[in-house]
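#lab-general

N.A. 3:47 PM
ok so I finally got the sequence cleaned up, no stray characters, all 146 residues accounted for. can someone with queue access submit it? mine expired

B.Y. 3:52 PM
send it over

N.A. 3:53 PM
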Amino acid sequence: MRYQRNFIIAMISLVVLCAIGVVGYRIIEGDNPHQKWTLFDAIFMTVITLTTVGYTDDNMSKVGRAFTVFLLIGGLGIFVYSIGVATAFIIEGQFREVFRRRKMEKSINKLSNHYIVCGIGDTGVHALEEMLQMNIDFVAIEQNQE
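B.Y. 4:20 PM
back already:
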């Protein structure tokens, strides 16, 4: 769950940064005496900046160039954060856990004529041991994952 939340934070941050970029360029360069920027120009420059393509606009004002620097720094920060989230997801075993859970769900979906044991206390453990010895299909449900 923590990784989903962090991923969502990274995606929302990217969307917010794009919105800030578009609005910022539109406000800053919208009144540029050399060239009035349209909404499309603002979107284009935001995408070019955040993808670090390297295109520059010679008619951009100094304020616009300073804004580009801050947009690049913000984009780099979000990129580094996103890489950290993805790396933690893989390294800390969450990637493996997702596949394990999927495999378990597929196995459970294939079951029929099985027993469901809820709560694996002392009695539940003994019941499960007996079911294992007798080759009886069952699904165990427990709040404590240990």
